[in-house]
Specification:
two-stranded antiparallel ribbon, 18 helices, about 45% helix, alpha/beta, 10 strands
């Protein structure tokens, strides 16, 4: 561990202060990167780490699901568990167990467990050829029981995050009759209680995402008192105050978490202003209503294309918020350099804070996405719709801002974030027939992919890389 630190007071606002890192959207970090990150979390007085898992644990009987993903192994988890423990951090198992099971259910061996085995209409992305949600049944419960039985023996934590968010097609497939009779939320809660019981059978206190149950506040008091709701929201106006009040009033005071977002997924630069406001909002509401935990979430939607450093500002902001430290007493730029770039000259913190302003210079297509990330992945028709309302001077202002950041940056990953943003910007300007000023010349797509792959492999495993590169290709052929 390093000696880098912030001006921490004697008492934090939250007993449990965690990071949840997505390792299921293609990018699984190397052990070296995970241990480096754990050391930085210890510097920042985080005391919990969760690795969000859908299919990236090497279950012994399920090779078909993880064989191309470079998954975490049982030996690695036990090693990380010990490494975390020595640094005052609890490694909490996290296995989504209801929705977000598409990486399982697309295989023929698991289709019989799906709510919609032959596909469904996703409300955001359209038709999908296979299901993403387990059909609430004894067979699905037995399947999850077997997964927990293998997974949990590798963790010393007394907790288990079972997921449970976004069961998109529940009630639209095999559970239609049950939902018509009892209602979606009752069917959902009944199966969730089965998962809670399985977790408790293995001696674990279950955590779960509270989004679905909060759609029916009248059902919240029916949750078992041993379960820990985690209230997530990722925007500057997320309703943390209302949701914390509901959960606390239902008897979960001192046993629920707030979970803001790092704001860096679906972005090349990080939505820094949104992340700052979102983190502060979650901390204020959670502290006021007696939340026991604060879990900063770092997702990897759409191929986990964002460079690692875009996470660093939010990690600092999360640490400040959970200890009640004013940013005036720990300026963000300097804190980034001190914690994450200890052996380098100052300047990367400044560059990252400037980079974090880029997304705010263009309209947000839809939360939690940034304009340039969306444009980068967009095919021709979608791109035209995206750029039509944007005035030329907006693009030129972004181009100039990226050039200013490039003149200050040191870290090659920050340089790469600029190049990804500039490539998307040039793509927009070409489609809109705007002259490119060439203050920065973005690389061609093949050079960009080569650099992306090189940087990926320095800190992440090879599994998933080809999937992410194919997403880049899809929008840039």
């Amino acid at each position: 561990m390093s000696s880098a630190t912030l001006p921490f007071p004697n008492t934090p606002l939250f007993e449990r202060r965690g990071l949840m890192l997505d390792i299921s959207r293609n990018r699984v970090p190397t052990m070296g990167m995970l241990k480096w990150l754990i050391d930085r979390l210890a510097d920042l007085r985080y005391n919990e780490l969760q690795l969000y898992t859908e299919h990236t644990f090497a279950y012994s009987e399920h090779r078909v699901v993880w064989q191309n993903a470079s998954p975490m192994t049982a030996v690695e988890i036990r090693d990380l568990d010990r490494y975390c423990s020595k640094r005052g951090i609890e490694l909490v198992p996290n296995q989504n167990s209801f929705g977000h099971m598409e990486r399982w259910l697309k295989h023929k061996q698991y289709k019989a467990l799906a709510e919609s085995p032959d596909g469904f209409e996703h409300p955001i992305t359209g038709w999908r050829d296979s299901g993403s949600t387990l059909y609430p049944s004894p067979e699905s419960a037995a399947f999850i029981d077997a997964l927990y039985g293998e997974l949990l023996s590798n963790f010393s934590s007394r907790f288990l995050h079972i997921g449970g968010d976004e069961p998109w097609e529940l009630g639209k497939g095999r559970s239609l009759t049950a939902v018509q009779a009892k209602g979606k939320h009752r069917v959902y809660l009944d199966f969730l209680k089965e998962l809670f019981a399985i977790a408790q059978k293995y001696g674990r206190y279950p955590q779960f995402w509270a989004d679905v149950i909060l759609e029916r506040p009248d059902l919240v008091p029916e949750l078992p008192q041993g379960a820990c709701p985690i209230i997530w929201g990722y925007e500057a106006d997320s309703p943390f105050e209302e949701n914390c009040r509901i959960v606390s009033k239902a008897g979960f005071k001192d046993n629920f978490y707030v979970a803001p977002g790092a704001g860096n997924w679906n972005s090349f630069s990080g939505r820094l202003d949104v992340a700052r406001a979102n983190i502060a909002l979650a901390a204020k509401a959670g502290s006021a209503h007696g939340a026991s935990g604060f879990l900063l979430t770092a997702w990897g939607d759409n191929g986990h294309l964002q460079p690692w450093p875009t996470l660093y500002p939010a990690l600092i902001l999360g640490a400040l918020a959970t200890w009640g430290i004013s940013e005036k007493n720990a300026p963000l730029e300097a804190s980034i350099d001190t914690i994450f770039y200890q052996d380098q000259p100052p300047g990367n913190g400044h560059a990252l804070c400037l980079l974090g302003q880029i997304d705010g210079m263009l309209p947000q297509p839809a939360p939690p996405n940034s304009f340039l990330h969306t444009a980068f992945l967009a095919e021709e028709t979608k791109l035209k719709t995206l750029i039509d309302p944007i005035e030329t001077d907006r693009f030129e202002a972004v181009e100039a801002a990226l050039a200013d950041i490039q003149s200050t940056t040191i870290d090659p990953e920050i340089e790469h974030a600029i190049k990804l943003s500039q490539f998307a910007l040039e793509k927009c300007k070409r489609a809109k027939h705007i002259k490119i000023l060439n203050t920065i010349k973005a690389p061609d797509i093949n050079s960009l992919k080569d650099e992306f792959a090189k940087l990926w492999l320095q800190k992440s495993r090879p599994g998933g890389l080809e999937d992410s590169l194919s997403l880049i290709d899809k929008g840039n052929n």
